[in-house]
């Protein structure tokens, strides 16, 4: 009798466990099927937008747009080109004289621009100037984090101060500007954050240890921020990460790759036009020219030795300083 009583007590528990397991398994496979269908539809949608239908360009007329690093190079050319679309530009740079010149050129073209001296590596300066902009001009709709420096030296030739300055300017400045401007974007339910990374943010090369680390960090920052905005239902704030190849900006000595027809050195005009097009179409991760996108996807799947052979064949695009 004792044996039968034990069976009577255990059988219902086993039966209950089996039913629960079967039910949970069914739910799992239903969710898996839902995931599969959503992935398929998302892939089809992405393929259509990539090959057949381009996203329409949005209007930025009368929108307040902040550009960091606006005194020289890409930042300056971005300001001059974006001015044609009718926004109100707020230009930041540590070089106030050249930043003022950029603003003056925008005004000569019929645009509106305000110039500020800001060291974007310094959070206090970013915070104080962001408050000043909000109080005197208005709410910033778009932040273009463009400020950057490039040492282009072997690690053992870099100073600790130089490394720290690169990380602060190229990476931490993104944290500072976003912390200052994102809360207001969340309040009004709209905004756009643009981060200038690089193909060196996708794979490291010699003489780019500090620079690559900062640009890898930018991509990681933007990906994590994108997910935070998604899970907190701030989907109306757009994030765009730009990853161009080597650009003739004067930051370093550029030399062409062995297959320049596929992996060219970019000129400023093409680079700026591509960036603006990506911004106006709300693109997410922008790797260009297209040859570098292919190059990136190939070498990240290859064993280390194979990647080294390929990159050695292609050649480096800079000479160390």
TrEMBL record:
Name one cellular component (GO) term: lipid droplet
* Bilayer-spanning residue ranges: 12-30
Gene Ontology terms for molecular function: all-trans-retinol dehydrogenase (NADP+) activity
Entry keyword set: Lipid metabolism, Membrane, NADP, Oxidoreductase, Transmembrane, Transmembrane helix
Q: How does it sit in the membrane?
A: Multi-pass membrane protein
Pfam families, per database record: adh_short
Subcellular location, record wording: Membrane
The lineage's top-level taxon is Eukaryota
Q: What does this protein do?
A: Catalyzes the reduction of all-trans-retinal to all-trans-retinol in the presence of NADPH.
- PANTHER family documented for this protein: PKSB, RETINOL DEHYDROGENASE 10
Q: Which family does it belong to?
A: Belongs to the short-chain dehydrogenases/reductases (SDR) family.
Q: What is the recorded name of this protein?
A: Short-chain dehydrogenase/reductase 3
Q: Which organism is this protein's natural source?
A: Dinothrombium tinctorium
**Phylogenetic lineage:** Eukaryota, Metazoa, Ecdysozoa, Arthropoda, Chelicerata
